[in-house]
């Protein structure tokens, strides 16, 4: 039986409804939670503590109201929480201005005990992220301590990201790539202060495993970490021939990965540690200031709204993963991941489209399907043709082209 | 000397500033006039009368505040003018809702005594519509009475539009094409009630002159109406080789022509009668619900906002033409024309782009430049390619294509 579960913070108890025998039971569509940007930010340290009421404003508990699945508790945030305190008149203009700084937070749906059949029939076709709890993942859940990991795979070399700041930026490349023996890397990633380091004593580490030859081979835990692979049972909620990669991800507490999308469906299996994942629908791409597959908006909690004014229009989905949770991330869904604790995850990617749709040279699962790349190349030829016209004409026909795309290729079942 | 002039309603007096000797003097950028949609509508009959204040609302004179060039007088419209009267609280939400039903009206700039040199140097490069007053147009201004027109060109056959309703709709084709002798047509167009008619006794008539073979030949008053052509002096504010067509336009009082754009620059020379012209910038194309070169929004004064919600975002430029006025309509500017009186106009089109940019088969001046047509054809191939992908991918990459067009081909000097 598969059932909706309460927020993960309380998931120690089995809260599955005994009356739910009719297959998939879902929460009613969660009420949106409007919270100011600043309130949506929680440091890794305070993530588990409910915050006290905000001084001078309406009392609000950002803890539970931001938790995945916690949509039924409502965070009544005052529009002036971020302001200078009480005594201000509620002027329409000011209210609207504050409104713009608030962002909807939608908890990602949380389901427990979902079978393969239920997933394929009821969950997968919806193309929405879902947290799956209570999955059978094997002995890794209890075994994968720092010592065990180090011993299991020893001193084989791994290429890692090292960052002096928690927030990694792929666009400005504020991190470096280094190579370390796996066991040394695991110990360093698990510690807060380092005696030996590359950049600074509190540098952060991040492993995203790759194939033997990163340019040609695809990451597969069974090949690169065969001993550890034996401990984990991957939920094969897809056909064997759809399998693309299994990527080992190990990161320091506090490390934040840039917002990006992948072109494959995937399960992010949180084996140990905790993560906060913020997601955005593919339809919100226009508000994410993309550069390739990545968003230029690095700090999703305190975005620079002067620079990225449309970012507030992106609907923020959010969940908190605990050890043993599996997050289904559909292809094209943007995600931003903070490791709230040192943690080990396995990220399993599989093909949703027919195999021939994908770029054969793609080892990371983030190259656009070939039809999409071709369409964009053809579009570039159209834009080249428009360049023959003066600016006012180019602008006008560009607008007409946009209208044509919206009319012909946009979904009309999106709200 | 060329000078800014006050609203055309007062233009009988010469108000040119004696102190303005330094070439082109322009009004300061007109303050926008926010008026509710309904207030923007004026029937041909009441066009010259200032309206009284609106009952139960703020006093407002839609007459002068809608007049071309009258931008300095401000119409303080109450947000509740269209509502149920006083006593309602000004709630932010309701205010915003009413706000959405209001539309900015920008008077088209009015200039007098503009020389060819001044036009080419100061006006033309701005690519904005302008009403030119006091142009030397020849004897047509006094000569072209109904009798004179009828006698001058006699009973040669002309193909005309006949409509039982004032508002012609090219998309639903709510009018018919008929053929009449020119002299009969002119008399019918000038009268309100007809003894002889095709559809109804108050049907409206409209002539848009065409070449000898409408499919191959281009309208030229010198060829189709050689006698009348002698009476009019066309302001040749362009090079001879740029000339494209001179289109005779004669219409019944009250007749309204659908909103559309042309791809050539043109002068609409109002020889006799009065017109109200509403214009929209090419950049507002996304709000006009286009079907080819025409807007689906037929009633610009009382648009169906359920069906066309974005229409309110289009900035409404407006002017009133009197006998002797010349309206410069830059290529791509949308225009909607109401004949407030029976009137005769000559519409002179010329090429702004190099001659080879235009479609060789275009006899009306409304086929898109070849580079634009090619770009749209290429875009259609890109969209065809996207069709290989499932809907969610197609939608996503369509959005990315839109972002790419906006980034690469939109002007960035538009506000």
From TrEMBL, chains A, B:
Biased composition (Basic residues): 23-32
BP term (GO), one: wybutosine biosynthetic process
Keywords of the record: Dioxygenase, Iron, Metal-binding, Oxidoreductase, tRNA processing
Protein name according to UniProt: tRNA wybutosine-synthesizing protein 5
Function of the molecule: tRNA hydroxylase that acts as a component of the wybutosine biosynthesis pathway. Wybutosine is a hyper modified guanosine with a tricyclic base found at the 3'-position adjacent to the anticodon of eukaryotic phenylalanine tRNA. Catalyzes the hydroxylation of 7-(a-amino-a-carboxypropyl)wyosine (yW-72) into undermodified hydroxywybutosine (OHyW*). OHyW* being further transformed into hydroxywybutosine (OHyW) by LCMT2/TYW4. OHyW is a derivative of wybutosine found in higher eukaryotes.
Cofactor(s) needed by this chain: Fe(2+)
A molecular function (GO) term: tRNA binding
Domain spans labelled JmjC: 223-367
Domain of life assignment: Eukaryota
Organism: Calidris pygmaea
InterPro entries per the UniProt record, alphabetical: Cupin_8, JmjC_dom
EC number: 1.14.11.42
Segments of this protein annotated with the region Disordered: 1-56
């Amino acid at each position: 039986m598969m059932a909706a579960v309460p927020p993960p913070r309380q998931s120690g108890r089995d809260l599955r409804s005994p009356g739910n025998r009719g297959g998939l039971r879902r929460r009613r569509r969660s009420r949106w939670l409007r919270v100011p940007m600043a309130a949506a930010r929680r440091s890794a340290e305070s993530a588990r503590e409910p915050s006290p009421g905000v001084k001078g404003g309406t009392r609000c508990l950002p803890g539970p109201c931001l938790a995945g699945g916690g949509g039924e508790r409502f965070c009544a945030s005052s529009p002036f929480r971020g302001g200078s305190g009480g005594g201000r008149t509620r002027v329409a203009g000011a209210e609207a201005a504050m409104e713009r700084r608030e962002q909807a937070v939608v908890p990602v749906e949380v389901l427990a005990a979902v079978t393969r059949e239920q997933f394929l029939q009821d969950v997968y076709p919806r193309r929405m992220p879902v947290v799956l709890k209570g999955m059978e993942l094997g002995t890794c859940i209890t075994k994968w301590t720092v010592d065990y990991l180090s011993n299991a795979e020893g001193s084989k070399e791994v290429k890692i990201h090292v960052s002096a700041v928690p927030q990694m930026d792929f666009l400005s490349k504020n991190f470096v790539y280094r190579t370390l023996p796996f066991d040394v890397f695991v110990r360093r990633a698990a510690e807060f202060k380092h005696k030996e380091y590359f950049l600074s004593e509190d540098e952060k580490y991040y492993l995203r495993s790759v194939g033997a030859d990163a340019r040609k081979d695809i990451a597969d835990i069974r090949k690169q970490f065969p001993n550890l692979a034996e401990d984990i049972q991957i939920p094969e909620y897809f056909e064997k021939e759809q399998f693309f990669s299994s990527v080992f991800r190990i990161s320091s507490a506090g490390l934040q990965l840039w917002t990006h999308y992948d072109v494959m469906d995937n399960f992010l299996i949180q084996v140990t540690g905790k993560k906060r994942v913020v997601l955005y629908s593919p339809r919100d791409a226009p508000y994410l200031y993309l550069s390739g597959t990545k968003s230029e908006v690095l700090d999703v909690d305190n975005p620079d709204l002067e620079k990225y004014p449309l970012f507030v229009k992106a609907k923020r989905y959010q969940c908190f993963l605990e050890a043993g949770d599996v997050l289904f991330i559909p292809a094209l869904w943007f995600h931003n991941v903070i490791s709230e604790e040192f943690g080990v995850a396995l990220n399993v990617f599989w093909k949703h489209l027919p195999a021939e749709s994908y770029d054969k040279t793609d080892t990371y699962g983030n190259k656009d399907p070939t039809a999409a790349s071709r369409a964009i190349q053809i579009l570039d030829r159209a834009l080249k043709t428009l360049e023959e016209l003066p600016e006012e004409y180019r602008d006008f026909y560009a607008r007409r082209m946009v209208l044509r795309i919206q009319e012909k290729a946009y979904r009309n079942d999106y709200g």
